[in-house]
Amino acid sequence: MTVRAAFDELCKKLEASGVESPGYEVRLMFEEFFGMTRFRMNEERDRQLSQKEKSCLSAAAERRCKGEPLQYILGKWDFMDRKYFVGHGVLIPRDDTEVCVRTCLDDLRKRTSPKVLELCAGTGIIAVTLAKQVPGCTVTAVEKEKAAFEYLEKNIAYHKADNVRAFSGDIFLCCNEFEDMSFDALVSNPPYIETNVVPTLQREVQFEPETALDGGSDGLDFYRCIARKWSKKLRSGGSITLEIGESQAKAVTDLLLENGFRDVVTVKDIQELDRVIYGTKA
Ligand SMILES: C[S@@+](CC[C@H](N)C(=O)[O-])C[C@H]1O[C@@H](n2cnc3c(N)ncnc32)[C@H](O)[C@@H]1O
Description:
Strand content: 15-25%
CATH topology of the largest domain: Rossmann fold
Largest sheet: 7 strands, mixed
Number of helices: 10
Low-confidence stretches: none
Strand order of the largest sheet: 5-4-3-6-7-9-8
Mean pLDDT: 97
Helix content: 25-40%
Structural class: alpha/beta
Bound molecules: S-adenosylmethionine
Number of strands: 9
Distance between the termini: 66 Å
CATH architecture of the largest domain: 3-Layer(aba) Sandwich
CATH superfamily of the largest domain: Vaccinia Virus protein VP39
């Protein structure tokens, strides 16, 4: 079978199983598996695929047709121009999180050698981006789940982000293990979906760990814990940046105002949806 024929066949299979952008996905597969850019695919369109290449594509197609996210099949995904390892047990980076990172970056650039605490770090996209883009910055990144923690360590090493320290711990339990009360910034994209909504999310999301999504019955468990316990780790004048679900702005703002924060604002995403809460410790 030629490159062209394999491409077309794979697109048809994915389309039939309900994948929205089959051409885009199949191109990414060729690129990740065989290093074939769109240009090279065109150049080699009449080349016969090897048995190994065919098996690789058909295994990927089988997984994708069952609804497994493309990102897990590729094993890597981009966030703000850097590649991160992803796979079962860790949340796939979302473009939405860029709003959180940019808000935090704007804050950190006004500070000198800031000390940052990231809670619920997952793949480490937030910690690594901040650590790489802010001169003199150090980041402590806390993650509870074993599989996610392994990806966090792997991504820190891959990006040579020596100024990120990965800490394995449950944020509901490990706060007292942190003696440092002088962090300049706290940032988090915690699980924030309401428990009863999690099973209704699209089929791809069902492959992602529930522990990365479920924020408790009202979706606010993690924000309560962060506002009440972890805000004590910030020095006066330190900042907090929290990614939120689109309907949570008022509840999270109130939690911060009740727990010693001022100048609390909501930042919207490109679709004008509330996406981030940012405030300053009084
Ligand atoms: C919404 S994901 C965010 C991951 C990453 N920061 C990002 O933006 O892509 C939430 C993360 O919190 C972690 N987590 C869940 N419960 C936790 C807990 N009790 N303590 C620490 N981390 C937890 C999950 O394993 C998951 O990696």
